[in-house]
């Protein structure tokens, strides 16, 4: 395929004092990436050059362009999102690094919404120092859902055939039970089903649904969410012919590796799904936002301030995020082609 027709993937730089710039440079140092996509870094030549020098990545090269309308095929492209030379202080969250992460994200999202990009890979942000008038969200997922006018979305963690989604996202644990309801469960399962079909090519997906309480409520003894909310939602979908099963006790489900029997798992809250997922696939896992009109992926880790600047960050998850974005874009484009 001609490189001019390869997916144009925007890359937001993340918090400039975290490991985002490092894993971007490490990932894109392998020129074979250009066989799959045209990467577009949204950030600053100054920041990238500092990281390149610190890593002694002399083989890493990019083409600086003025806008996404000037992208150069067969090159790593970079768009400057700010003019000033900001200080890079690895491991130290600063207002300047938070603003840089927001400027990068907004520029990439604007181009994505304008149709100048095919997808977005986001490097990690600091959910605290990015907060501003433009960003009043607990994370990327909620921001992107709002920015792209989606009715709803779903956090879906992916590592090969292991896929774990969460009904509730970045909210306090004490609020989880109050947020759960029949319609929410149905909506999240529906988004998951549609994504598995459209984005992963699984025509009849098998989905496991976890319970909220220990032992999935033990028939109401340890909680009633399973009998009153989760099971009725599962049964309604099952009665309509969907391959949806549960609710399963979360500990036994993962402990007995039952996830291998399903195409995806729906957990009730963030840590219930992400702790086992990261235990099984921390290095290769990818965070995908299902349910959006655009394709967005990210590594399944944060800014890692504790190792920022030490040049030891593992770029595998970021690389996998880039590849997954390319795969999903290709599947969506194939789906849209008319049958002759």
What does this structure look like?
By secondary structure, the protein is of the alpha/beta class. The chain is built from 10 helices and 12 strands. The protein has helices spanning 20-28, 45-55, 95-113, 140-147, 176-179, 182-198, 225-239, 250-255, 270-281, 316-336, and strands spanning 7-12, 37-43, 63-65, 77-80, 119-122, 154-159, 162-166, 207-210, 244-248, 264-267, 286-290, 296-299. Strands 3-4-2-1-5-12-11-6-7-10-8-9 form a 12-stranded mixed β-sheet, sandwiched between helices. Strand 11 and strand 12 form a beta hairpin. It is globular. The model has no long low-confidence stretch (mean pLDDT 94).
Question: Which key terms come to mind for this protein?
Answer:
36% helix, 340 residues, 10 helices, 17% strand, alpha/beta, twelve-stranded mixed beta sheet
Give a quick rundown of the structure.
The chain is α/β, with parallel strands linked by helices and 340 residues long. The chain contains 10 helices and 12 strands. The model has no long low-confidence stretch (mean pLDDT 94).
**Unreliable spans:** none
> What is the topology, as strand order, of the major beta sheet?
3-4-2-1-5-12-11-6-7-10-8-9
Average pLDDT works out at: 94
Oligomer: single chain
Radius of gyration: 20 Å
């Amino acid at each position: 395929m001609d490189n001019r027709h390869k997916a144009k993937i925007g890359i937001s730089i993340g918090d400039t004092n975290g490991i985002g710039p490092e894993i971007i440079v490490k990932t894109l140092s392998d020129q074979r990436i250009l066989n799959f996509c045209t990467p577009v870094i949204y950030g600053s030549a100054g920041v990238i050059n500092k990281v390149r020098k610190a890593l002694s990545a002399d083989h890493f090269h990019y083409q600086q362009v003025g806008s996404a309308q000037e992208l150069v095929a067969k090159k790593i492209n970079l768009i400057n999102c700010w003019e000033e030379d900001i200080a890079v202080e690895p491991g130290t969250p600063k207002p300047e690094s938070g603003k840089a992460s927001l400027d990068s994200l907004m520029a990439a999202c604007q181009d994505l919404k304008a149709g100048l990009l095919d997808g977005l890979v986001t490097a990690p942000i600091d959910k605290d120092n990015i907060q501003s008038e433009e960003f009043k969200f607990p994370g990327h997922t909620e921001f992107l859902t709002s920015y792209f006018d989606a009715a709803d979305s779903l956090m879906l963690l992916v590592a090969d055939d292991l896929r774990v989604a969460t009904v509730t996202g970045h909210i306090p644990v004490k609020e989880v039970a109050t947020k759960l309801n029949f319609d929410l469960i149905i909506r999240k399962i529906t988004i998951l089903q549609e994504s598995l079909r459209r984005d992963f090519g699984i025509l009849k997906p098998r989905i496991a649904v976890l319970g909220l309480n220990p032992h999935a409520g033990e028939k109401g003894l340890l909680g009633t969410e399973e009998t009153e909310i989760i099971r009725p939602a599962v049964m309604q979908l099952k009665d309509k012919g969907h391959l949806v099963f549960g609710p399963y006790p979360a500990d036994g489900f993962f402990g007995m590796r039952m996830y291998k029997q399903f195409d995806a798992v729906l957990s009730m809250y963030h840590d219930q799904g992400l702790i086992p997922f990261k235990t099984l696939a921390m290095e290769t896992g990818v965070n995908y936002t299902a349910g959006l009109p655009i394709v967005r992926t990210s590594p399944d880790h944060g800014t890692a301030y504790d190792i920022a600047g030490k040049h030891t960050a593992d770029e595998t998850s970021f690389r996998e995020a880039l590849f997954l974005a390319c795969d999903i874009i290709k599947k969506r484009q194939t789906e849209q082609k008319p049958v002759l």
